[in-house]
Design goal:
Shape: flat
Order of helices and strands: EHEEEHEEHHHHH
Oligomer: single chain
Structural class: alpha+beta
Strand order of the largest sheet: 2-1-5-6
Largest sheet: 4 strands, mixed
């Protein structure tokens, strides 16, 4: 197989790219990270700078968006993706972190990754909401319920599923690092322990 150069591009925040970078670093895969900035103007609009002026519509992306992922082979051919979860799933399959290839195990992996993604989205929406104080309590109730599901799943199934768990750790770890650790069900929470073990 030809060697590849991997480029990942996103804004200078973590939201939709941290799990991609975690997987690449976990597998010791070299990559170049293109960081972009954007500035909110007084009227509420955004000034995109380099992303809008140079990158978004000039990279040959089928669906121009960030984050983006580009594999460049020695012969100059390129494989390009956008959408953070599509990129994560591609890397999981490519680097043997997506189960044994069976439809059922792949479906379970998809389920866990999507639940974690949903939790992250809910948390981000709460964090940036102007109604934070009014929404916080109901959001925490929902989060604790879903963490309970994770606890049960990990006790019953997690250790039996092998190395593919690391794909899910890439999605779960950011949840622990953005504040979910302060609302876990117990000090020895299974999902938090797994994420911390992955980090170490």
């Amino acid at each position: 197989m030809d060697s590849e150069t991997i480029t990942v591009g996103y804004f200078a925040i973590r939201v939709y790219v941290d799990h991609i970078k975690l997987l690449l670093e976990y597998k010791d895969i070299p990559y170049v990270f293109e960081s972009y900035t954007k500035t909110q103007l007084p009227d509420g609009s955004w000034l995109g700078g380099k992303w809008y002026e140079e990158a978004k519509y000039n990279l040959g992306l089928d669906f121009p968006n960030a984050p983006y992922y580009i594999e460049t082979c020695e012969d100059g051919s390129q494989f390009k993706l956008t959408e953070s979860m599509a990129i994560l799933r591609h890397l999981g399959r490519k680097h043997s972190l997506y189960g044994n290839g069976s439809l059922k195990q792949s479906a379970v992996i998809d389920m866990v990754v999507d639940v974690a993604q949903e939790m992250r989205t809910d948390f981000a929406n709460l964090t940036y909401s102007e109604s934070f104080d009014q929404l916080k309590d109901s959001c925490l109730v929902t989060v604790k319920t879903k963490l309970g599901y994770f606890e049960k799943f990990m006790c019953q199934s997690w250790k039996k599923l092998g190395n593919w768990r690391r794909l899910n750790d890439c999605r779960l770890h950011p949840l622990a690092s953005v504040g979910f650790s302060r609302i876990t069900l117990s000090g020895d929470s299974g999902w938090l322990s797994s994420a911390q073990t992955f980090q170490n």
